[in-house]
Write a structure and sequence with these properties.
4-stranded mixed beta sheet; D-Maltodextrin-Binding Protein, domain 2; about 40% helix; Multiple sugar-binding protein; 6-stranded mixed beta sheet; globular; 2 domains; single chain
Length: about 425
């Protein structure tokens, strides 16, 4: 979820998203395939720990939309993230209780599409100029097969956080490659045994995947409509071998780090117990509020060659239209408004949500140096998980973290652990 940042008065002034000067013709048809242009538009958005700023921005968008559409009322409900699976399943099974528009996590989409829950809005987006400002790899997070089932609303990507005071004290230069990241961690651990080098856990899937991707590896390769595991490729295993050096006594000891999640990895850094971590833009507020804030710098996580950037996972949330809606046109128009430039900027200012539109990204990077490393990471290209409903079970069963943890604990070699993980992935992909 996005990190919280107070609104900045006068910052990031954006161009308004212009609605059509005239409201569409009003109809009130009903029945299958209806596309009513009046009535109540129901919207589900995720609730947040501190959602007042989000509500304010969304409220302004609702007021703008209702003013431009006579006879239309927008009803926004905020639903808990933790119960989203049950809520969406209920909505898919009973369209009368479903929203017209909903925010959803992009890794959930493939399963939702398989359930027939979201509408393909490719045609409507093809004529929307703002959509061309979303990069292909980010746009892909809302696509399944040949369909586009929403608009990427905001992203979360990760970069390298490091302690400038520790590096200066030990004479360590900012790492230019992943190998240098590992070596810097080893130097810290040797000189400061009470401190972790790079705090990154065995259960931190999106912490270790950049090591795989940077070496040219992949979780799986797509073949038509199906996937085949590639985590056991030579390239993937090279990345896993390097990451195994992170989870070692010389860097982040397995007894401490093998079971650590992403949040726990970052917390070690915030607590002053680590010289580096792989953190997201959504962790910035916590770092800024910590005792290490003044001694922290952030750079893109480097790749295998100097000047390169390790591909990051493009996590985030999208806005989509439910397939059972009888307000399709209004639903798409509301998605375009809330996901457009004006309100992406507003949501960044209010909640720190990293925008998906390239023009907005440029504006926020120019206005806020803290976000620049994350925008640079986005610009370098991101990766995503296999777009299949099988991913939910793969993730729930911890196939990839288990692979890494077996290596860290000494229970298996990279060769064996990757091979076993590949077999589990292929089993899940085939539906066995």
């Amino acid at each position: 979820m996005p990190y919280r940042r107070p609104a900045r008065a006068g910052a990031l002034l954006g161009l308004a998203v212009l609605l059509a000067a005239c409201a569409p013709a009003q109809t009130d048809t009903s029945g299958a395939g209806a596309d009513k242009r009046e009535g109540t538009l129901r919207v589900w958005l995720f609730s947040e720990v501190d959602q007042e700023p989000k509500e304010q921005v969304v409220g302004d968008a609702v007021a703008e939309f209702e003013a431009a559409h006579d006879g239309v009322t927008v009803d926004v409900q905020y639903i808990p993230v933790d119960s989203r699976a049950e809520r969406f399943q209920g909505a898919f099974n009973d369209p009368s209780s479903a929203p017209d528009v909903a925010e959803y996590g992009n890794t959930d989409l493939a399963g939702y599409v398989e359930a027939g829950g979201f509408a393909d809005i490719s045609e409507e987006l093809a004529g929307w100029d703002a959509y061309s400002g979303i990069s292909d790899d980010v746009a892909a997070t809302a696509q399944v097969g040949n369909g586009t089932y929403g608009v990427p609303w905001f992203l979360g990507v990760r970069a390298l956080f490091y302690r400038t005071d520790v590096f200066a004290d030990l004479g360590i230069d900012t790492p230019q490659t992943l190998q240098e990241v590992v070596e810097a961690g080893q130097t810290v651990r040797e000189e400061k045994p009470d401190m972790l080098g790079l705090s990154s856990g065995g259960a931190y899937t999106y912490g270790f995947l950049p090591f795989v991707w940077a070496h040219g590896g992949a979780i799986a390769e797509q073949e038509g409509d199906s996937y085949t595991a590639a985590i056991d490729s030579a390239e993937s295993k090279a990345g896993l071998e390097l990451y195994s050096e992170v989870l070692s006594p010389q860097n982040c000891p397995p007894q401490t780090c093998a079971q650590m999640t992403g949040n726990e990895s970052v917390q070690n850094f915030i607590a002053g117990e680590a010289a580096m971590t792989i953190g997201g833009n959504f962790n910035m507020n916590a770092v800024e509020d910590s005792d290490v804030a003044e001694d922290t710098a952030v750079v893109p996580l480097p790749g295998t060659e100097p000047g390169s950037v390790a591909p990051a996972f493009a996590g985030g949330n999208n806005l989509g239209v439910l397939s059972g809606t009888d307000h399709r046109t209004l639903s798409v128009e509301f998605v375009k408004l809330l996901a457009g430039k004006k309100y992406q900027q507003r949501m960044y200012e209010a909640m720190g949500n990293l925008p998906t539109l390239s023009g907005v990204q440029s504006d926020v990077a120019a206005a806020d140096e803290d976000v620049a490393p994350f925008i640079e990471t986005l610009d370098a290209g991101t990766r995503f998980v296999p777009v299949t409903g099988a991913w939910a079970s793969i993730d729930a069963e911890g196939v990839l973290p288990t692979m890494v943890q077996r290596v860290a604990s000494g229970d298996a070699s990279v060769e064996t652990a990757a091979g076993d993980a590949a077999a589990s992935l292929d089993e899940a992909f085939s539906g066995e």
